[in-house]
Structures are given as C-alpha cells and as structure tokens.
Amino acid sequence: MICVVGGGLAGLRVGYELKGNSVVFEATKIGGLLRSEEIDGFTFDTGGSHIIFSKDHEILQEMLNFVGDYVEHRRRAFIFYKGRLVKYPFENGIFSLPAQERFEILKDFVENLLKKKEEPKNLLEWFRYVFGNAITEKYLRPYNEKIWKRSLEEISLEWVGGRVPNPPIDDVLRASVGIETEGYTHQLRFFYPLSGGIETLAKNVAKKVDVRMEAVRKIELEDKIVVNGEYEFKKLVYTAPLKFLPSMLKEAREIEEEIKKLECNSIAVVGIGVKGKVPNVHWIYIPQEDIVFHRIAFLSNYSPNMAPKGCATIIAEISNPEKFSEDDVLEGLRKIGIENEVEVVKTWRWEHAYVVYDHEYRKNIERVKKFLIQRNIIPFGRFGAWEYLNMDAVWKKAKSVAYACSDGDTEQRQR
Ligand SMILES: Cc1cc2nc3c(=O)[nH]c(=O)nc-3n(C[C@H](O)[C@H](O)[C@H](O)COP(=O)(O)OP(=O)(O)OC[C@H]3O[C@@H](n4cnc5c(N)ncnc54)[C@H](O)[C@@H]3O)c2cc1C
Predict the structure, then answer these.
(1) Which domains does the chain have, with CATH numbers?
(2) Cα(77)–Cα(5) distance, rounded to whole angstroms?
(3) Cβ neighbours of residue 94 under 8 Å, at least 6 residues apart?
(4) What is the pLDDT of residues 124-168, one digit of tens each?
(5) 11 Cα–ligand 1 center, Å
(6) Ligand 1 center to residue 384 CA distance, Å?
(7) Above 60 in pLDDT, residue 174?
(8) Is the CB of 11 under 6 A from ligand 1?
(9) Best mutation site among 12, 34, 50 for ligand 1, i.e. most ligand atoms within 8 A of its Cβ?
C-alpha cells in the first residue's frame, strides 16, 4: 500500500493510477485548489479561474471523460488597457489600439529585432529580448510585477521554459498593421464542466479512490513509513505543501533551510454574484495598480449553470491578499464598467497559489527532492514538488509517479 498525502488533483490522480493500492489522506476538503462553492444559486470556483486545456490530446480526452458533460469554448480573453479591452495576448491584440500606438510598438519591435542583444538572464531581460521595450513596458512588466509582487529581475528564465511562447514575428507585424491574429493557441479552445464548477473534475476522480478525511500530522521513518502513529506503508507520495513537512517528519528538519527558501505567492479569490448581464467575455487581465485584482473571470460565461437565470457569477483574483477589502473589489469592477447590482460577495484565501522561480529555486528544490526520494517519499504536485504545474501536467505526471511507486510490497497494515 502506498500513502498519498493530500487529496488535491495530484493526490487523487496518483491514487487513481495506483488502482486500489493506495490510501489518500485529505486534511480539509477534496479537490485542493479545484473547489467550487454554491451560494444562493451562484457557483464560485474558490481557488480561482480554472479552465481545462492541454496540448496533449490524449490527456485532454482523459480529463474530459472524468468531467462528464462539458462545455467547449473558443477563448474570449482581454486585457484592460487605457480604458479599453485589448484582445489577449497583448501582442496579438495590438490591432485594436490607436494607429499612433500601433506604430510606436511596431517601430520598437522591429528595432529590437535588428539590434545586437545580450542573452537574457532573468524574466525582465527576456521580455525585452523577445518583445522589445514597448510591449514590455505597456503590459508585460506592469501585469507581471502585479502578480509576482517583485522585480522581474528576481525571476529566473526557468519559469519561461515552454510557458510563455515567443510571439511569431508575423503575428506582431500583422497585429500592428491592424490584422487580427491569435496567440497562445494551445489554450484557444478550452473546456469546462457543464455543472458544479471545476470541482466536478476532482470529485469524479475521488469517486474512484480510497480517500480518508484525516490530516497527516506525523510521518515516522522506520523500516516502514508510519503515518499518524497508526498506519504502515512502504512508500509515501507527498502532495501537500512542502512547507508543512518539517512539522510532520523530524528528519525533514535537515532540509528545513532549503524548504524555507522556496518561494510562492498567495492569492485571495473574491466571488461576486450579480444581477443582470455582464460582458460576453471569459476573463480580463488587469495590469493597473489602482485596481486591486489582477484578473476577473466571468464564470457564468464558462457555463450558464454557474448562476441563476438573469444573473452572472464573477470571480476576482488578488495577488496581494493582505491589503484589500471587498469594497475595493467592487470599486475595481465599477472602474472597468461593471455596475450591476450585487447579490453575493465572499472571499477565499489561498496561502499557496503560484510557485515563484527565483534564481535559487533549482538548487533548493533539487536538494529537497533528492533527500525525500532517498527516504521513499515521492514529492509530487504543485506545492508537494514546488512546480508550476497546470492540471494537465499533474494528470500526466501522476502516471509516472504511480509507476515509480508500484514495485514491491502492496500491503497496508493497521498497527
Ligand atoms: C489561481 C490559479 C488558477 C489556475 N488555473 C488553472 C487553469 O486554468 N488550468 C489548469 O490546468 N490549471 C490551473 N491552475 C493549476 C491547478 O490549480 C493545479 O495544477 C492543481 O490544482 C494542483 O493540484 P495539487 O494536488 O498539486 O495541489 P493542491 O490543490 O494544493 O492540493 C493539495 C492538497 O493537500 C491537502 N493537505 C494539506 N496538508 C495536508 C495534510 N497535512 N494532510 C492531508 N492533506 C493535506 C490540501 O488540503 C489540498 O487538498 C491554477 C492554479 C491557480 C492557483
């Protein structure tokens, strides 16, 4: 038997892949970040806006099979820029800017292409290297500084790897002269559960897994792994946040310094249920400092079942969760033109939301992973392995994690 700590998507998926040879321990509620809550007919994804997409068609299909009934969309995402909605991603949306601004961006982009440049060493340099100064300063820098809450020079290039695609030069040129194009095409089509919000995916996986609603408080390393002084396992897959591990496992104090140095950002998610119509868009990025949230999503445009008839469900994500009030959020909505009558407002806070890839990240995480694997503890998941994983990556990796676990003894004994 294998012990899986954490019943978020990572833990549930490994539990599923281990086909009856595992017990998943969950401390609070199944689903982790994939939780949804219904209030007066409005359904909110409390861990922020989650859409289902993948470059890998097989993985995508597997996820959708678990969702059951779903809605398919062509993305309608925008950036709120100088009082107007610019199509996302910004470099593809330039076509909607005034001619003078398009010219400035195009001139800068072309000059940047012709310039001899040094290889970038951090995220800010990479943005300038690939997109030029104009796109960087108008959107990429303010938006990313808002979400990362630090200078982009502190973020390593490892974060970019495969996540932020280089814009095809043709796209920027076309957009600059006024032709509409599409970017980030791997996410252009996305899927969403027809009902129940994103939690539907986690819930349906959980139905096929042995989940125990019990927090793991203590892990002891004897010839077996002993959990909560009660259960014995051969191996353990750890998907809860690494920060909690030293308090459960005394040996982990040896790697406490490295764990402490792993950085992440927290968020607050504010759900707002409103009467009447909202813009026919999926989500909007907000780089402005005077608006408290960095993104709002219109969940009732993901699925009509997310709100009562004639109403709409909105969530706002805030990367500075310590410094805002719900009134600030409503004020921000008014600034972008959403003045509907509000029926419901509720806030959820997540200490662990975005993994930060600073320059020390690789060294620290490698030491932590090596230490744990040598002790038959496999770190996995967004904060169990401290990796910026989306759901499809979690889904895919769960197969190799389960495979790595599945040798040898499969018996769990009650002490
Ligand atoms: C704002 C935001 C938006 C996102 N949008 C998307 C998107 O659109 N598409 C996409 O594919 N991905 C998206 N993601 C990523 C997605 O949320 C993650 O890939 C996925 O939820 C990670 O699951 P996990 O199981 O690794 O972690 P978590 O969901 O954090 O699960 C960890 C679990 O461990 C449990 N736990 C903690 N301590 C203990 C303990 N002592 N004992 C037992 N259990 C414990 C927790 O209660 C929790 O349930 C987004 C993430 C964020 C933050």
Answers:
(1) 2-32+198-261+357-414 (3.50.50.60), 89-183 (no CATH)
(2) 36
(3) 86, 101, 102, 105, 106, 172, 175, 176
(4) 999 999 999 999 999 999 999 999 999 999 999 998 876 777 888
(5) 9
(6) 10
(7) yes
(8) yes
(9) 50
